[in-house]
Amino acid sequence: MVEQRNKLLFIVMLAILIVASSFYSFWQKNTVAEVVSSDEVAVKNDFRQPEQSDEIFVYISGAVHKPGVFKASPNARVFDIVAMAGGLTDEADRAKTNLAQSIKDGMHIHVVDMLPVSNEHSATTGTTKTKVGNKVNINHADKSELDTLPGVGPALAERIIEYRQTNGSFTSIDELKNVPGIGSSKFEKMKEKITN
């Protein structure tokens, strides 16, 4: 009888011990999970903060005294970057540079030169021409000249000039298709009348 009672007591104690250890293990895992998740939130918050940068970088080239990459505030304008680059040179075409334009990170500002009319274009024969036939030079034409092209109105002419100021001179006439509003069909109508 005593032996049976001891066995029963041993089984009850063992059951209590198993339940207690299971409860403790479960509680331990939840505590660790809470600590990890709160640490993850803190880490995620730390990663978000650097995105709110108060500095941007802008590249300026062309007719300025010190071309290069400059650090500026996000609300700076083109004239601020021109000042950082030592100002415009005497050869700069001021009418083709929008000094009041807002800037953005990674922007390229190219200040064009005023080219002498006599050597703007040289043909392969060695003769010097101001225009090849009656083609419009998309790198140097002003708004009114661009407006004469088929399918180009004042708004699109302004976009071409803005693209040129932001990205620099057109390296080929095909690059004109990168300007918003100039698709393949519109480009086909004007390609015989333009040069770069």
From TrEMBL:
Which Gene Ontology molecular-function terms are recorded?
Answer: DNA binding
Q: Which residues cross the membrane?
A: 7-27
Q: Which InterPro entries match?
A: Competence_ComEA_HhH, Endo/Exo/Phosphatase_dom_1, Hlx-hairpin-Hlx_DNA-bd_motif, RuvA_2-like, Soluble_ligand-bd
A cellular component term, taken from the record's GO annotations:
type II protein secretion system complex
Record bears the keyword Chaperone: no
Taxonomic superkingdom: Bacteria
Sorted keywords for this record are: Membrane, Transmembrane, Transmembrane helix
Give the Helix-hairpin-helix DNA-binding motif class domain ranges.
144-163, 174-193
Q: Which SMART domains match?
A: HhH1
Q: Which SUPFAM superfamilies match?
A: RuvA domain 2-like (SSF47781)
> GO biological process: any one?
DNA repair
PANTHER family (UniProt xref): ENDONUCLEASE/EXONUCLEASE/PHOSPHATASE FAMILY DOMAIN-CONTAINING PROTEIN 1, ENDONUCLEASE_EXONUCLEASE_PHOSPHATASE FAMILY DOMAIN-CONTAINING PROTEIN 1
Name recorded for this polypeptide: Competence protein ComEA helix-hairpin-helix repeat protein
